Amino acid sequence: MFGKNKYVNFVSDKDFLKCVEHVCNGYAEARENLSIDDLRSNGLDPFKTIFDLINKRVRFDTWLKNEEMRQVDKTLNNRIGEFHQKLLGSVKGWVDLGIGDDSKVDLMKEDKSIFIELKNKFNIVNSDSLDKVRDKLEKAAAQNKNSKAYWAFIISKDNSSGDRVWNKKGRKINERIRVIYGSKVYELVTGDKDSLKKTWLALPRAINDYFNGKATMIPEEDMKKLLGLFGSALQ
User: Fold this and answer.
1) SS (H, E, C) the chain
2) Of the listed ranges 18-22, 89-93, 123-127, 168-172, the one predicted with least confidence
3) Measured in Å, how far apart are the chain's first and last C-alpha atoms?
4) What integer pLDDT is reported at residue 41 of this predicted model?
5) Which residues have CB under 8 Å from 64's CB, separation 6+?
6) pLDDT, tens digit, for every residue of 37-71?
7) Rounded to whole angstroms, how far apart are CA atoms 119 and 167?
8) Mean pLDDT (whole number) for 119-125
9) Which of 28, 50, 67, 157 has a CA-to-CA distance to 77 between 20 and 30 Å?
C-alpha cells in the first residue's frame, strides 16, 4: 500500500506523524495549562497528602511536582487512546468517526461491515459506561445487517490478545457483538498481525522527527529491555 513508508506500511507517513504530534502536543499543553486551581478542582485529598509527605519522606514542592505529573498523566492517557483511534481511522477503507456521528462509536469500516468502540485500556470503563458501550454496539449491529460490532481495547489485563463473542450478563448472546483486544485490534483493521508491534517500534523515529531530530533517544539496550517487558502485549 505504502511500500516506501518511513514508519509503517498501513498508513501514510503524514498521517502517522500527525497522530504522533497529537500526543506530543498534549505533553506541552498539559504542563502549560495545569495550575494550583486545576489541582484543587480535581479533588486533592489533604489527608492522603499528609500520609504521602511523611511516608514518602518528601518535601511539599517535590510532592506537588509528583501530583502535577499524576494529573498530567490522566490527560496524556486520553491522548494515547485518541492516537490509536486516529491512526486506525487513517487506514484505507476505515473512518475515524470522531464525535457527533449517529452511531456514537469510534471507528467504522467504510462499507459499514464493522463498527468499533475503542479504548486504550481494559479498565477505563466502569459498569455503567460498559452498558452504554453495549447499547451503542447493539444499535449499530441492528441497523446494519450482517455487520459486526466490537468493544475493543489495546491494553488487556494480562497483556494478551484475543477476539471473542461478548457475553454480558443480562444481555442476549449475539455472535455479531464481540470483544477484541491487544494486537488483534490492529490486525482486524490493517490485516497485518504484526501491525501493533510495527507501530510501537516506529514511535521513537517518528517522535524524533516531530522534535526535528533533537529528541533524547532511547538507547538500543533500553529498547531491548522494553521489548522484553512489553513483548507479550505486542504479539
Assistant:
1) CCCCCCCCCCCCHHHHHHHHHHHHHHHHHHHHHCCHHHHHHCCCCHHHHHHHHHHCCCCHHHHHHHHHHHHHHHHHHHHHHHHHHHHHHCCCCEEECCCCCCCCCCEEECCCCEEEEEEEECCCCCHHHHHHHHHHHHHHHHHCCCCEEEEEEEECCCCCCEEEECCCCCCCCCCCEEEEECHHHHHHHHCCCCHHHHHHHHHHHHHHHHCCCCCCCCCHHHHHHHHHHHHHHHC
2) 123-127
3) 22
4) 57
5) 39
6) 666 656 677 788 898 899 999 998 888 888 877 77
7) 18
8) 85
9) 50
Residue with cell 524524533: 208
Q: What pLDDT score was predicted for residue 34?
A: 59
pTM: 0.86
pLDDT band, very low/low/confident/very high, at 122 (cuts 50, 70, 90): confident
C-alpha cell at 151: 468493544
Specify the pLDDT at position 208. Answer: 95
CA distances from 201 to 8, 80, 156 (A): 9, 15, 19
d(CA 193, CA 235): 8
Cell numbers for 219: 538507547
